[in-house]
Amino acid sequence: MRLPLPHVERTKSSMTKKATEVTIEIGNFKRDITLPAVLINQEATVAKLVKKTTEITYSTTTARR
Q1: Sign of CA dihedral 9, 13, 48, 3
Q2: φ and ψ at 6, to 5 degrees?
Q3: What is the b/e burial string over 11-27, where b = at least 16 CB atoms within 10 angstroms of the residue's CB?
Q4: pTM greater than the 0.70 cutoff
Q5: Fewest CB atoms within 10 A around its CB: which of 1, 24, 55, 64?
Q6: Which residues in 28-44 are b (16+ Cβ under 10 Å) and which e?
Q7: What is the DSSP string of 2-52?
Q8: CATH number of 2-62
Q9: Which residues on neighbouring strands pair with residue 50, listed in sequence order?
Q10: Residue-by-residue pLDDT tens, the chain, 65 positions
């Protein structure tokens, strides 16, 4: 999953997954994003900033519950 986030410093942002949504917080700004069905049972394994875009890689195995 790729999220364009220009002008955002990695140290000032956080992401949390709850059920079917990812919550992104940047300073006082907060946004909930509904995950596509294919990612709901996957576990995020890597999040990195690449050319002003946050790239989140999910595992190919289902996440533990």
Answers
A1: negative
A2: -65, 150
A3: eebeeebeeeebebeee
A4: no
A5: 64
A6: eeeeeeebeeebeebeb
A7: EEE-TT--GGGEEEEEETTEEEEEETTEEEEEEPPGGGTTEEEEEEEEETT
A8: 2.60.40.790
A9: 53
A10: 888 877 777 677 788 888 889 888 888 889 898 998 888 888 888 888 788 888 888 886 544 55
Residue at token pair 């300073």: 27
What DSSP designation does 65 have? -
CA dist 11 and 36 (Å) reads: 26
Please name the residue that has the structure tokens 């195995």.
61
